[in-house]
Protein: aldehyde dehydrogenase (NAD(+))
Amino acid sequence: MTATPLDLRSVIAGKRLPAAKTPLVSVNPADTAQTVAEVSLADRADFVSACRAAKNAQQQWARVPAPVRGQVIGAMGDLVTANKEALARIVTRDIGKTLAEARGEVQEIIDTCEFFRGEGRRLYGQSVPSEMPDKQLFTFRTPVGVAAIITAGNFPVAVPAWYIIPALLTGNAVVWKPAEYSAACAWALYELLTRAGLPEGVLNLVYADGEETFAGLSAALGEGLVDKVGFTGSSAVGVRIGELCGRHLQTPCLELGGKNPMVITEDADLEVAVEGALFSGFGTAGQRCTSLGTALVHESVHDRFVSMLAEATAAAPIGDPTRDVLYGPMIDHRFAERYESFLGWIGDHHRVLGSSGVGRITPANPRAGFVGDPQAGLFYHPVILDGVVPEDRVFTEETFGPIIGVTAYRHLEEAIELANLPGYGLSCSIYTTDAKKAFAFRSGIGAGMVSVNNSTSGAEAHLPFGGNGRSGNGSRLSGVWVLDQFTRWQSMNWDYSGRLQKAQMDVQTTQAEPDFRLPG
Structure:
C-alpha cells in the first residue's frame, strides 16, 4: 500500500505556514510514481519573517547556560539514536541513497551530537596576563546571533546537523532552508531536534526555492536580522552568497563543490586502490562534493588499474537502494538532466568502460545485473573515462554523477600539478606504500582534506571538514574548529589598580646589560 504523501510546510516560531494552492510534488527517485511529499514553498517575505522570529528568540536562548544547552544537544542525539532506522529509511525514500549509506549518514548526526554534548562545558576563553600590575585580561566566546543555514539535499540530514548543532550549542538561533527535493528528510530531522527542549523560534524551517531564498536572505541581511550564513551547495551559488555577505561585512561559511583527485602511485596496493575508487566515484551515484573526480595513475600501473577498476565496476550491483547495491538513482530529475549534459563532454579520444551502456538505464539500454526495475526510477550507468586530458571539461569541472576520469602521469610532481589544476580544493587521496610520497603529496596539494590509502569521501565528527579555492572560502565544519564559525571572540580588561594605566605608555621597563661579556 502506498503511503499518503506528507503535507510539508515551513515552520516559523513553532507555527506552520498555510498550505500553498499549488504545492511542489516531491517523488521517490527510485520509484518516480510514488509521491513522497507535497511541499508548500514559502516566499522571500516568509524567509525574512523566520529571521525576525529567530532574532526575537536568540537572546533568551543565549542566556541559557552553555552546559544546559549541551544537555539539549545530548537529548537531540538520544532522539536521533532512538529513531535511527526510521530516519535512514526516510532518507532512502526521499533521495534514493542506499540504506547502508543512509544509516551511516544518520550515524554522523549521532556522532556530532555526542561530540557537542560536552562542548557546552568546554566553551573556554582564556585569562591572559597583562603588561600592567593590578590588571587582568580575559577572552570569551560569544554567539554571533542568527544563523541562516542553506543546505543541499545529497546529504539531507548529516550536513545540516554539522551546522545546526554547533550553532545552537553556542547560543545562536537558526533559520534552516533545506533543499526542496529532500523536504521529507528535513521535516523528520526538524521534528527530532525540536523535541529535545528547544524554545520556539530558536530553530525555524523554511521551504523555498533558490531565488526566493536569495531575495529573502538579501532583505534579512539588509535589516540586520542575519549575523552568519552557512551554505553548502554549488560553487556558482556560493560565489553569489559570498558577494552578498561581503556587502554586509560578513564572512559566510561556504562548503562548495569538488573535483577530487586520487593519485595511484607505482607502489600502491592496487586491490585496495580499486576498492577506494569504486566507493569514492560511485557511492551515492557520484553525487557527493567529495566524490572522486579524476584518478591520476602512474603510467607503469595505469593499464592494470584501469582493467581492475572496469571489471569491479561492471560487476557491482546497481539499482533498488533498499537492497544491497553500490548505488541507487540520481537524487532528483534536475540532477539526472544535468548529468546527461556532462555525458555530452565525452570525446572521441576517451575510452569508455564500466558498464554495458552509457546514460539512463532502460530496457533499451540495459545494465547487466541490474537490481530491481530500471524503468521505475532515475538510474544511470556508471562511466569510467580513460584517456582524460587537462584540456577536457570532464577534467576541470565537477561532474555530479557516476563518472570517473582516468589520467596517466609519469612522476609525483606531475601528479600533484595535475591534481591542483582544476582549482578546486576540497578532498583528495593518494594510494601508496611509500611514506615519503604520502607526505610530499600532502605538502603539495591544495585540498583541505587529504586521505592516504583511503577514499576521497568520508568525514568524522571531530575532524575539520572544508575546502579551499573553488571548493570554499577556507571555513571549516566539524570538531572544535566549527566553533569559530558560530562564535566571536570578545576580550575584556579589568583594571583594579585604582588609577588609569595606559597600555604601551605606562609599562614598567627593566634594565639589561647588553654589553656584558664573560672573560675569554
